[in-house]
């Protein structure tokens, strides 16, 4: 039996799952809806959800954005070296999903077990990341807003001067 929510009918299990693992990321260009993937990375997804609930991502900049590659955010210092007060996470790599357009992955240092709060959204496929970085979700709508984020200087590893920000990030639930 379907449950009617607004003008859309969805199965009860889908409605609950969408709410529990759906994040809205609002930018000045519009909203991106991200479907989190606890089936691929349960500990990383839980950390992201905890930080979202705290309002951690609100106002944080997209500090590293490379045309045709990805947009990275989640560093409160805006330098690419910061994180949250939560512990770093052990890698949750998978071969069940690939880094393609719209995939959300966790940023880390050269240590595979150093992901914390930073994440990136892919603009295009990048097979070299498959099995090397943790996938936490995918943009299911609003990729056009992500496409408009100010790009960084290619000669400076994509670092952005006067970067765009996450206006608000919240759980759909």
Question: What quaternary form is this?
Answer: single chain
Structural class: alpha+beta
Q: Compute the number of strand runs.
A: 10
Which sequence of strands runs across the widest sheet? 5-6-8-7-9-4-3-10
Approximately how much helix is present in the residues?
A: 10-25%
Major β-sheet annotation: 8 strands, antiparallel
Strand proportion, as a percent range, falls in 25-35%
Shape: globular
Radius of gyration: 16 Å
How many helix segments?
Answer: 3
Rounded to the nearest angstrom, the distance between the terminal CA atoms is 21 Å
Q: What would the average pLDDT be, to the nearest integer?
A: 91
- Secondary-structure element string: EEHEEHEEEEEHE
Would you identify the regions where 5 or more consecutive residues have pLDDT less than 50?
Answer: 1-17
Function: PPIases accelerate the folding of proteins. It catalyzes the cis-trans isomerization of proline imidic peptide bonds in oligopeptides.
Organism: Labrys neptuniae
Protein name: Peptidyl-prolyl cis-trans isomerase
Family: Belongs to the cyclophilin-type PPIase family.
Task: Tag the structure with descriptive keywords.
two-stranded antiparallel sheet; 173 residues; globular; alpha+beta
Describe this structure in words.
The chain is an alpha+beta fold. 16% of the residues lie in helices and 26% in strands. The chain is built from three helices and ten strands; from the N terminus they run E-E-H-E-E-H-E-E-E-E-E-H-E. Strands 5-6-8-7-9-4-3-10 form an eight-stranded antiparallel β-sheet. A two-stranded antiparallel ribbon has the order 1-2. It is globular, with a radius of gyration of 16 Å. The protein starts with a strand and ends with a strand. 37% of the residues are buried. The model is unreliable at 1-17 (pLDDT under 50). Residues 1-15 form the signal peptide. PPIases accelerate the folding of proteins. It catalyzes the cis-trans isomerization of proline imidic peptide bonds in oligopeptides. It is an enzyme of class 5 (isomerase). Keywords: Isomerase, Rotamase, Signal.
